[in-house]
Batch of 2 targets.
Target 1
Amino acid sequence: MNNTSSVRLSGRQAMWLVVTTILATTLIFLPAWVAAEAKQDAWLSVLLSMVVGVVTAWLVSTLGRRFPDLTIVQYGERILGRVLGKVVGLVYAAFFLHINTVIVREFGELLLTGFMPETPLVVFIGTIIVVAAYGAWAGPEVLARVNDFILPVILFLLGVSLFLLVNQANLAALLPLAEEPAGIVRGALASAVFFSEVIILAMLIPSLNLRSEAARAGVLGVLVAGFSLMAVTVFATMVFGGERVANLTFPYLALTRIVSVRGVVERVEFLALGIWVLGGFVKISVFYYAAALASSQWLGLREYRSTVVPIGLAIGFLSVIQFENIDQISSFLTTAALFAYLPVTLGLPALLLILATLRGLKGGSGTAPGPRGADKEVSP
Amino acid sequence: MTRFRRSIVLAGLVLTLLLLGTSCWNAVELDRRALVMGVGIDKAKEEGKIALTVQIVKPGQLPTPRRAPGPGPPVWVVTSTGYTVFDAVRNFVLQSGRKLFWAHMVVIVISEEVAREGLAPVLDFFDRDAEPRRLSKVIIAKGIAAKEIMKGQHELETIPAAAIRDLVEGFTSVSTAVSVNLNEFLKRMSAGGVEPVAARIEVVAAEEREKAEEKALQSGDDGGMAEDPRLKAPPRFRVTGAAVFKGDRLAGWLNRPETRGYLWTQGKVVSGIVVLKCPQNEKETIGIELIRSEGEIKPRVQEGRVVAEVKVKAEAHVGDVLCPLDLTKPETLRLLEKRMNTVIENEVRAAFRKAQEGLRADIFGVGAALHRSSPGQWKKLKDRWDEVFPEVQVEIKADAKIRRVNLVLKPAQPK
């Protein structure tokens, strides 16, 4: 058996983590934001924006193969030198922290609007941060094991909820196909940010027991999450029609609320709630871990755990104060985030990869245990 | 960390989670809930205000297997007013002492008067709030206040609102009425090239009642009014035909044959009776029971005109025969099928005539079908679809099949 200090994930576990991370909170909002641009072709937009995720996964895993024992914060410094590298490191630490503030806020907003309107937002945010702090503290291996249990549940609940809608789905609502290509592209941009969340691989790769599986994990993770999101979008369009999906705050929640099989099977929004809370926990914990690890590496700390508490306070505080209302979240994620997040998830890794290739840089940190030895020891 | 510190932290965590995990923040116990089963929406007497009338369940008055129902009706009917729907909803608290709980509401009845001015403003609350479901039926009260509908009772169903829902859902066995829930209504309202319809409810024997009221008023004797049995009986309702909307405004009504004509085009005729005339004797009739149908609208643009091809397929049984007809001969059935085709075509034509000439509202979704099949053409037409739709040429092709004659070949005849 492994000793406790060396954390190891299998390729499959990494893939599952990517799936939950992309899928969990995204599926509640996504169809509306995409349909606002692409109407009945929203699912084509989702299909298109998976490309962003696949490219990000490829970039990050290729970098990961060059620097198998380093995170993006560490090899950023290797590639760009100390000063520029520190800037890039700070960007990533800030990015993981910031995206988590948005996710935490979304998490609270849905519970507030959909289920408990009189409860203060701080209660939801505080609770999930305490739980996620424990998850981040425990580290990726524990999260992966929890996720081994959670992801099948999520996919099962998702499948059941969509199956129950078959009697209300109208296939014709998806026609005409590809009516306005420009709209489909705009819709794809609106959902690109979600798929770029596969960037967490850049922080997880050193924890993989087989780094060579990172590419597969990333790409497959994006595809599984992407096709699940596409299914939700397709059903939302078939049940509500392209025009109306765009007007719903939480299309997936609306879907579960409208389930009615012969008047017997009704009120199944607990399915959405289950997915939301289980998946939300994993997603927030993963980003929490990434933020804690990135900031501790940026600061040169030996243990990432020392940043868990301050990061949690920062997430909680920022998630409450930075948005005044729910509209600011959606407008941020569909517009400003394109310029704030995509350069970080897509632009910077591409730049780093180009420079690393040109300068012929590769290798581990030298002090961390090499990956090869561990490979033989743990295999799923 | 020492074990002691660990266990303190752990105990603290567990305690916090236990407290938060119950999510008791806005818990309302069942016996403190006021369950709304149905709502009626009228204009209030005061200018610019809305009057809501709700049926709230009185759980004590409901019969259970162990207990006989309590005295009095099982619902409390109460009216509240406000400047918006939500305003009126909150004002109920002044009378009920508790906030109403909307998650079990099954019908939304709207008076004709409100519907003519537009439903979007009154439906927004039910669409936006997290409690009501979009499965509630949308029903328009013809010639009567929605409040009166809410006050009604039903002999078979204890909760009147549930009875109204059953009336609406019962359309499937006659196919001369429509059943539309809030989701379907809003979907059609916000989509291009299709207009919404809604169920129509009216009072049975309203004239009788009016006459009695008039008489009582003329006599000027209040005691007499209370004694007249025609007034004492609670109003009974029926759901027939359909309310036709243009956008969110009520444009008019479809009668029963027109409604079935509309349902044929949507493939929504589930069952129902088609009455045909006997081949030998035009005065006698045959009842045909529908068992299945399919409908499809295929629009195309031909020489600058939109042509809508309506295809209807129907399957049926012979239900009852009121003339001596020999059903053993295949040509008899073929003859009946031909007559049935004519009936279907007439009904569809009547529906189109009303929608095109009278109401100018594309309830069939000809525009939406054109959008699906030829988006290019639709783009050119969509801005002036209101003018194009009444000019759409309709081609109807009905294909009825009579599959079975049930248990009798030739009707029993006196010798």
Target 2
Amino acid sequence: MLTRRIIACLDVSAGRVVKGVQFVDLIDAGDPAELAMRHAAGGADEIVFLDITATHEKRALLLDAVRRAADQIFIPLTVGGGIRSLDDAMLVFDAGADKVSVNSAALSRPELITEIGSRFGGQAVVVAIDGRRNTGTPESAEVYVSGGRIATGLGVLEWARQAEARGAGEILLTSMDSDGTRNGFDCELTAAVSATVQIPVIASGGAGNVQHFADVFTRGSADAALAASIFHFGISDARAMKEELAAFGLPMRLPC
Amino acid sequence: MSTGKTVVIDYQTGNLNSACKSLRVVGADLLVTQRPEDLKTAARIVLPGVGHFASTERLMTSGIGDAVLERVAEGVPFLGICVGLQWLFAGSTEAPEAPGMGVFSEVCERFPTGIKSPHVGWNSLELVQESRLLRDLPKSPYVYFTHSYRAPVINTTAATTNYGGAFSSVIEKDNWMAVQFHPEKSGSVGLKILKNFMQVSGC
């Protein structure tokens, strides 16, 4: 049976992890490659590096971290942040990434999705969508850029549909309403996106406890969920979280 | 450990990095090539693959297909990964104009509507007959898949996976071995499968 995935996300700046999954036994700071390895050993199903600086000068540091991580982990590695062109994507793939995640560059030029997909396969293109609906319905949710500061006027469901039509392999949906609240994922919005597209949807933003993951996998119909800062869970690693989720009856990759 | 060159066929699609890295980890001495003549020295052959079935057409026009048939008939073990498994079939509805190798007479098809496609993530292997690739693995191990087309279950299917019905996830027939999932992305289970392939002696 296809399992639901727990994806460990590490925010990287100038080649160092600045914020990421924080489990009790895994104090988070330092080298992305080393942390990726420890998360893989701890039972994470995939690893995401998100380059939050993505300046030209700092890019080499990220690529070096991707290279070292890819040498040592044998689970899927996605790299996002600052992928603005096919050339940017090629550098990241050459360094050893299996997928790239594109966000604002794909919004300004949706052909980018198709360009990367035709060269590396659609499975290698994750389209990241930052959505906000305030108190509105999921249908009213709007796509934001620049870390949720600027509204684009484009509907989340409409953009998800377009991204799929352009050949995206997966959607990474972050709820800007929920992000940082620890009150749970936006299950309604996740479910609406999941029902709109045929491709898998990864939920992100708002996790505060293991029940929230169970909710987004059931009520939210998410195929995967991104684990960000969850230090306060009192959970030692992804394996322990997956064991709890399995106890809720969710299919998980165990043993892992 | 096995000796000789493991030839990885590069047909200029997708990303061979992960496959090459994991093969080196299990001790393979690699030669990555697009030239059919390089298969002459192969002790074993690997055809990795992500991407569209149409990209396998290059294998036929370049003479790689014939070279593979010849070497495998001479006893060289072959491992096809993902599209590399589907290529062994007569073809795929993904690219009806591109013939496959026809080692297996059936045709690969898209997942039925009503379930999400591509099939992405970790799913389990159910052993249906003895398998050299899956030797010494736990029951129903999880491996990483990402694909929109799938091969039917045939009489040489070694393991099946269930997603909208059962499909072939491992096939073994003499020196022909193939997996639909990505062993290079399947953690320790995947590395064990590659190691098992490195230890297969041809027949």
